[in-house]
Amino acid sequence: MKNNMFFSQTMKRMFLGMLASLTLLFACKAMAGADAAQGGSFDTDRFRGTGGVGDLVLDALSLKQGVTFYDDRGYVIDAPSSLSLKNNSQSAYPGGERGLPKTIRATWRVGDFRQKQGGGGWNGGTIVGDYTIPVAGRIPDEILNYIRKNGGALRIKLRLKDDGILLGWDVQRRVPIPGVDYKHCKDPRDCVYGLAYEMAGGDFREATIVNGKVVDPGW
Q: Which end of the chain is more exposed for a tag (fewer CB within 10 A), N or C?
């Protein structure tokens, strides 16, 4: 009889322990889901069928140093040591296949700043610029529909100014070069194409420079 009572109490404690563990597990999952929903949510649905984001172009109206760009979860997108109109940066947007974050934040510094160990931003000095700009929601649907119909890749352009960030965009497409014979090109990846930038919009458009001369000042 005593053995049966001991066995029954043991099973009861095990059952209650399992129930508590399951409750904690579901609570943790719910909290994780809430955290994921609060930040870093890429606007994936709107960008579906466009191939995501291609290049990210960065520059600044005047010299900015110790620059770091973050997405809305605080992950570093890029961290150039300096930016200006002449010293710009163009690279593939990290994680661009998911679309764009709702916002992007940029900071820049002066003084004795140093690169963080392992990269990913800067330490030291004094942060003199810290601004956040909406991004995903500002890209017009007509741009995304144009890419779905005609191909190409969305370029995102961020330009720093003393009191904020400017956002621009366009569509980058490969186009045939006049005079080049493409008939014998079996694989398009082996052929040489030109690049065209179409559907420019946003707060600014960079100048077009050909052979060192400004042929279009932009806006």
A: N
Q: Exposed e or buried b for every residue in 132-163, given b needs 16+ CB within 10 A?
A: eeebbeebeeebbebbeeeebbbbbbbbbeee
Q: Are strands 164-175 and 64-71 parallel, antiparallel or unpaired?
A: unpaired
33: Cβ contacts below 8 Å, ≥ 6 apart: none
How confident is the model over 178-192, as pLDDT tens digits? 877 777 777 766 677
CA distance 40 to 134: 13
Please, where are the H alpha helices in the chain?
2-38, 44-47, 141-150
**Residue 42 in contact with residue 136, Cβ under 8 Å?**
yes
pLDDT tens digits for range 128-149: 999 999 999 999 999 999 999 9
Q: Give the type of residue at 109.
A: R
- This prediction's pTM: 0.74
